[in-house]
Design a protein that fits this description.
The complex is a heterodimer of chains A (about 290) and B (about 325). Chain A has about 290 residues and is an all-alpha fold. Chain A has a domain at about 80-245 and about 255-285: MetI-like fold, CATH 1.10.3720. Chain A has helices spanning about 1-30, 35-40, 55-60, 70-105, 115-125, 130-140, 150-175, 175-185, 190-220, 220-225, 235-240, 250-285. Chain A is globular and about 75 Å long. The relative contact order of chain A is 0.13. In chain B, strand 1 and strand 2 (about 65-75) form a beta hairpin. With about 325 residues, chain B is mainly α. Classes of the chains: A mainly alpha (about 290), B mainly alpha (about 325).
Chain lengths: ~290, ~325
């Protein structure tokens, strides 16, 4: 009896969580298929009356583009390129630096280890907006304003804490004795490293890379303040510059479509690596 | 007997604490360790410590980018201006309200989600995937999705919830203060509850099943088991989740920027700072705001750690 009630409760919970998590995503997906005419006239119902792919034409720039929206797709595609490039480079560099640091933290005994971990924690909690003013000033002096490195450098600083914490938690779990065991069995130190340690460490490094990428892909404050043109503006910032034909109304369909396009990579990553992401998110933060 | 153990133990502790002269190996390890963390530490400090010092310096000047020649050293009067302005306090109150409400709601919903995820034996992959989607989605996208959901002409909220007495087809959610704050908080809660629930799930997994079972055998009710056994045993996880989320919520910017741009008095501290610096070019005044924001976050972190006695070393498995 009690057992059964539990089961029903779990089922209801399952459905509630699914609806909670997916409804807003389904909503922008549905909105992206509503034509400009429909949202202009107002359509409070959830699903489109007529399904149209005109928004996707305007955003991605194929087929016949709505007059007046010719530059939208150029700007958006440029922003998409910036987002991919900046996030990928920041992730790559951040993970390399974090791997070195995490190895030292997990494996070596050195003075200042606690200081490094505390610094990382402090930076993870740092109010990013507080940096906008001084960085704006500094970047203009150094010529980094509105460039890729101008965003990559701060993204690295703000993703390093997360990467270091996740990786040092992972590295602590690796049975490092296996490296010596392999060497005793006749492997050279390079072989021991490549065939034993790399396969053991790779999942952790990969997880840290995913979390770092998510951060860089999501970041908004710096992307908005440290850029001025599509030379380096990323998608989140570019979205807030979208203008539709009607200046008094946001271009619902276009924004929804752009949102869907930038969410696709996230969904693919989540689908492929959900187990790893969950492990990474929780390993760094909670271990009793 | 006692002397022999002592003499064996001394060199070990000496090498570890570093008070006694270190062995060559320990020195080398120390040096390598520092070399390996150096690049990360430098990058982290480059973008935080240096600009913060810069902000401290600029905050003592009257300095507006549009009139750079008027730059003048004015001691602490920028701080006086900020602290004497009612807008600053209104925005701080807004931010605190958003922080407290969202974290409290997320804690409850996140815990319920964690319980379901802990119990569920089917479709774990589907569950994990869907819970990670709000986590991974861009905050700006979440803000747009909810802004459109709450919109008068094109949203589903008004038509789905018109059976509630205070909602009708033409309810303008962004027309006054509290409804707009509500919409902002909904977006914030939706986006960040998954993070909370995953941290809580990890804590839940560490509560021993035997203990819960024993309490059950002893006749504890469901509520007693929850309050007396499960929650006390996952205190560390709850505190870490609250700490992280509270400080994150205090920095709220994206949702407000997209949904209201600060209209209807929905500005947060972060938004005020941004507006002063980037839109009004008030670098002096803005820097003062930056410094104050930084100090507030420090104070907040200290308060949470002290108040809940969060042991971070234990939380990261070093105790």
């Amino acid at each position: 009896m009690n057992e059964r009630r539990n089961k029903i409760g779990t089922w209801i919970g399952f459905v509630v969580i699914l609806v909670w998590c997916l409804l807003p995503v389904a909503w922008i997906l549905s909105l992206s298929f509503k034509g400009p005419g429909e949202t202009g006239a107002g359509s409070p119902q959830f699903l489109p009356e007529t399904w149209s792919i005109q928004n996707y034409r305007d955003i991605l720039g194929f087929g016949s583009v709505t007059p007046g929206q010719e530059s939208t797709n150029n700007d958006f595609l440029a922003a998409l390129r910036n987002s991919f490039g900046i996030a990928a480079i920041a992730t790559f560099l951040s993970v390399i630096f974090a791997t070195l640091a995490a190895y030292a933290i997990a494996r070596l005994d050195f003075k200042g280890k606690r200081l490094v971990l505390s610094l990382a924690l402090a930076i993870a909690m740092f109010p990013v907006v507080a940096l906008v003013g001084p960085l704006f000033d500094l970047w203009r002096t150094l010529g980094l304003f509105n460039t890729w490195p101008g965003l990559i450098i701060p993204y690295m600083s703000f993703t390093l804490p997360l990467a270091i914490w996740t990786l040092s938690a992972f590295f602590r779990e690796i049975p490092w004795e296996m490296e010596q065991a392999a060497q005793v069995d006749g492997a050279t130190s390079w072989q021991a490293f490549r065939k034993v340690i790399v396969p053991l460490a790779a999942p952790g490094v990969f997880t840290a890379a995913i979390l770092t990428f998510f951060f860089a892909w999501n970041e908004f404050v710096l992307a908005l303040s440290l850029t001025s043109t599509t030379a380096s503006r990323t998608v989140p910032a570019q979205l807030s510059f979208f203008v539709g034909p009607d200046p008094f109304n946001p271009p619902y369909g276009l924004l929804a479509t752009a949102s869907v396009v930038v969410t696709v990579p996230i969904i693919i990553i989540v689908l492929l690596f959900q187990r790893k992401i969950v492990a990474g998110l929780t390993s760094g933060a909670v271990k009793g | 007997m006692t002397t022999s153990t002592a003499s064996v133990a001394t060199p070990q502790t000496g090498g570890r604490t570093g008070r006694k002269p270190m062995s060559d190996r320990a020195t080398a390890e120390n040096r390598l360790g520092r070399k390996l963390v150096a690049p990360a530490v430098i990058v982290m400090l480059l973008v935080t410590a240096w600009p913060m010092i810069q902000a401290l310096y600029l905050s003592l000047f009257r300095y507006r980018l549009t009139t750079p020649d008027d730059k003048e050293f004015i001691w602490f009067s920028n701080y006086g201006t900020v602290l004497g302005d009612s807008l600053f306090w209104k925005d701080t109150v807004n931010t605190v309200i958003i922080m407290v409400v969202t974290v409290a709601v997320e804690l409850v919903i996140g815990f319920a989600f964690a319980m379901v995820m802990h119990r569920i034996i089917f479709a774990r992959g589907v569950m994990r995937t869907s819970i990670l989607i709000p986590y991974g989605i861009i905050t700006v996208v979440s803000a747009y999705s909810w802004q459109f959901a709450f919109s008068i002409n094109n949203g589903w909220v008004n038509s789905w919830f018109d059976w509630l007495p205070w909602v009708s087809a033409d309810t303008n959610w962004f027309g006054s203060h509290w409804p707009a704050m509500f919409a902002i908080m909904v977006s914030e809660i939706w986006k960040t509850t998954p993070f909370m629930s995953l941290l809580l799930l990890a804590g839940l997994a560490q509560v021993s099943e035997d203990m819960v079972e024993a309490a059950k055998v002893d006749g504890a009710t469901w509520a007693q088991r929850l309050w007396k056994v499960i929650i006390p045993n996952m205190r560390a996880a709850i505190m870490v989740a609250v700490l992280f989320r509270a400080l994150d919520a205090f920095r709220i910017f994206d949702n407000i920027y997209v949904m209201t741009r600060g209209a209807q008095d929905t500005e947060s501290s972060s938004f005020l700072t941004y507006r002063q610096v980037i839109q009004q070019f008030q670098l002096g005044l803005g820097s003062a705001l930056s410094v104050l924001l930084f100090l507030t976050v420090l104070l907040l972190a200290w308060l949470i750690v002290k108040m809940f006695r969060v042991d971070l070393a234990q939380a990261r498995g070093e105790a």
